[in-house]
Amino acid sequence: MPGQSWTTADIPGQQGRTAVITGANTGLGFETAKALAAKGASVILAVRNADKGKAAANQITAAGPGADVTVHQLDLTSLDAIRRSTDELRTKLDRIDLLINNAGVMYTPKQRTADGFELQFGTNHLGHFAFTGLLLDLLLPVPDSRVITVSSVGHRIRAKINFDDLQWDSSYSRVAAYGQSKLANLMFTYELQRRLSGKGKTIAAAAHPGASNTELMRNMPAALRGLSAVIAPLITQSAEAGALPTLRAATDPNVLGGQYYGPSGLGEARGKPVLVKSSQQSHDVEIQRRLWTVSEELTGVKFPV
């Protein structure tokens, strides 16, 4: 297993494999899609804005004229839209090799999804929970198929699963709400892997990009934005580098279910992709199972495992 020198050159050939990537029109998702397409995968950009998705697909095919890239509309803020999206995908695909739950929002002002969920929890966790559950049977029979969910170092920051007020009805902290959603991403991964174990050919793993310079930072509180502009060049890395943990989790033959990948550097802010540890809280099995049950109830989606 390569140590701390893993790059896109280490991605095995992906010919014959189909990858569905949410939020793939920009940032980390775009770089993930670009790298997988360059290795021969058929890549589906599952995006909210079809025009931006088409522009991203054109960029990828321009960089690699033989790239197989298509655009598929997905709005993770609406359960009805997610069901329409998955229904349409199922008419086009008979298998999925890689499902990469990459899309996300960060530090948004208090907003609601179409179903009344707090936007960060609703998009980052519940949207992907539903999307995965409705497509999982297309992965289960496929050798070395994987569900990769992108979390964040933010899962450690003021983060807990606040079952008494999951939707932040009584108060709101954009930082704590983001932390809850990213902690939920990890707990979802660990519980999904436990359910997959011994029941099919699919594994679930997670990754985080460290401190990557992407559009995700656009909602950072004004008080922090100025400071970030000064220190960002010192502590962040490019979206291309930030995508490497996701790519490793998705393609390294040595990856095991339930593993978590992130940058190797100080504070996991930047560096080559390596196996990292998530918070002790994220491994609480009782909370994982409770979150799963609540997520099923909120989304109406039952998994085939």
UniProtKB/TrEMBL annotation:
UniProt entry tagged with the keyword Oxidoreductase: yes
Keyword Cell cycle set for record: no
Protein keywords: Oxidoreductase
InterPro entries: NAD(P)-bd_dom_sf, SDR_fam
A Pfam family assignment: adh_short
Family membership noted in the UniProt record: Belongs to the short-chain dehydrogenases/reductases (SDR) family.
NCBIfam families the UniProt entry points to: PRK05854.1, PRK06197.1
Protein name, entry field: NAD(P)-dependent dehydrogenase (Short-subunit alcohol dehydrogenase family)
Protein source organism: Kibdelosporangium banguiense
